[in-house]
Specification:
The complex is a heterodimer of chains A (74) and B (351).
Chain A: H1 2-13, H2 34-48, H3 54-57, H4 63-73
Helix pairs in contact in A: 1-2
Chain B: E1 2-6, E2 8-16, E3 21-23, H1 33-43, E4 47-49, H2 57-71, E5 81-85, H3 96-103, E6 110-114, H4 120-134, E7 139-147, E8 165-174, E9 180-187, E10 195-196, E11 214-215, E12 221-222, E13 228-229, H5 231-253, E14 262-265, H6 270-279, H7 291-294, H8 301-309, H9 311-314, E15 319-327, E16 331-339, E17 343-344
Helix pairs in contact in B: 5-6
Classes of the chains: A mainly alpha (74), B alpha/beta (351).
């Protein structure tokens, strides 16, 4: 699951997979913007069958936070 | 809530847009060329139509209604009700529908406004079908109009490039030749803040402060009386609630996706519609798109899409169509019915 998520997130952020470490604060990434946000929500829905609502996404800070959220809610 | 009707249907439809075309790829105040390019690529909205100052939603609806009444050769005295769905009325009071009743010469019609946005076509249809179903009323004129170019800031990063203006007229009739139709309607006020104008109503009345434009952290420039839209909140709403609603109504009416000829969806933006379409496993050729030409026009977007994309088809043939509208409120709903052969007016582009 983790590999697929990182691969898809790298496509959205148009960056190398190696840039996306577990503790990366994704909102600080150069290419994180409103469209990257929507694309990430859509990607999680497409690949993990989960729509993360805004209020639930807000507290997630790092890539591992997102992965943990998906793991415990899917 | 899901419910159905029988022997009531759409007899005619027409739409109007203003002549002024806005090209989103031309330079825009408060947007860099990169921002406008990215916006067009993701939303699919290249062109929009904006009214001039002084032209209202009601003027677009009036033009669409006049054309429909003239070309269908309808006796104006036979129209027994007029419903105007909009959140861009002419005045705070009286209701715009009552002024339109006079302008259109509908002397026998009672008239009322419904204050809804992107779900407005579904709610307007449902209200018309319900009036006919429960009374002696046989013919209702439904008008959906919006001039959101006047109620949002053109320098807002979320909505400044999104909206276009349009008006539409739909004639709804009682006729035993019409088959069954199915509706769903939902509201959720707990998310009313996702699309909202904070001031200018009676909770926070208009003042010098509320019309003053301010700069916000995301670079948007707008006043408190201009609308705000939380794009991410609306996107998750579409992928969750709207997705469930469309599947739910298909289940209730006992149809599969492949038994529906067209899904005419509120033209929110291409990014959201594509994700919704793929999630519902609907082939692309069943989902007509008009937003590339007209932008997001809110309530009229469904009849405008029918008029501009399906006109040649439903003039000649009957098609099973699912409509779905969703947005401000939050308010959403869907309808399934056979439409056609019906009158479809050629799109009016000179109001």
């Amino acid at each position: 699951m983790k590999d697929l998520f990182i691969e898809k997130l790298a496509e959205i952020l148009e960056c190398e997979i190696s840039e996306l470490s577990d503790d990366l604060v994704f909102r600080n990434h150069d290419r994180w913007d409103s469209l990257a946000f929507l694309s990430t929500i859509a990607m999680i829905d497409d690949h993990f069958g989960l729509v993360i609502m805004n209020d639930d996404f807000e507290p997630l800070k790092t890539i591992s936070d997102i992965l943990e959220y998906i793991e415990s809610n899917k | 809530m899901n419910l159905y009707f029988e022997g009531i249907g759409i007899a005619g439809i027409s739409a109007a847009v203003p002549p002024k075309i806005i090209d989103n790829l031309e330079p825009k105040d408060n947007f860099s060329p990169e921002e406008t390019k990215r916006f067009v690529e993701s939303t699919g909205i290249r062109f929009r139509r904006h009214t001039e100052t002084g032209t209202c939603s009601s003027d677009l609806c009036f033009a669409a209604a006049e054309k429909l009444i003239e070309e269908m050769d309808i006796d104006r005295l036979d129209i027994q009700a007029l419903i105007f769905v909009s959140h861009t009325p002419d005045y705070r009071r009286p209701a715009t529908s009552i002024i339109l009743q006079d302008r259109l010469g509908l002397k026998n019609a009672f008239a009322l406004d419904i204050n809804l946005g992107c779900s407005g076509f579904i709610y307007g249809l449902y209200t018309a079908f319900s009036f006919i179903n429960s009374s002696q009323v046989n013919n209702i004129l439904l008008l959906n109009g919006e001039t959101l170019s006047k109620s949002y800031s053109l320098r807002d990063k979320s909505s400044g490039l999104l909206f276009g203006d349009a008006g539409a007229a739909t004639l709804i009739k009682r006729d035993s030749n019409f088959g069954k139709s199915w509706f769903s309607l939902f509201s959720d006020g707990s998310r009313h803040h996702l699309i909202k104008a904070q001031a200018g109503g009676y909770r926070k009345q208009s003042s010098i402060e509320t019309v003053e434009e301010r700069l916000y952290p995301d670079g948007s420039i707008r006043s408190e009386e201009q609308g705000i839209m939380d794009g991410a909140g609306i996107f998750t709403f579409i992928l969750s609630d709207v997705y469930r609603d469309i599947n739910g109504l298909l289940d209730f009416a006992k149809f599969d996706v492949d038994q529906i000829d067209y899904f005419v969806l509120h033209q929110a933006n291409h990014f959201a519609l594509e994700h919704l379409r793929k999630k519902l496993k609907i082939p692309a050729d069943k989902v007509p798109i008009s937003l590339n030409q007209f932008g997001n026009t809110s309530g009229p977007s469904i009849p405008l899409t029918v008029t501009s994309c399906l006109n040649n088809i439903i003039k000649e043939q009957s098609k099973k169509i699912m409509f779905s509208g969703f947005g401000v409120g939050l308010s959403w709903g869907s309808a399934i019915m056979e439409v056609g052969p019906v009158y479809v007016g050629e799109l009016i582009t000179d109001i």
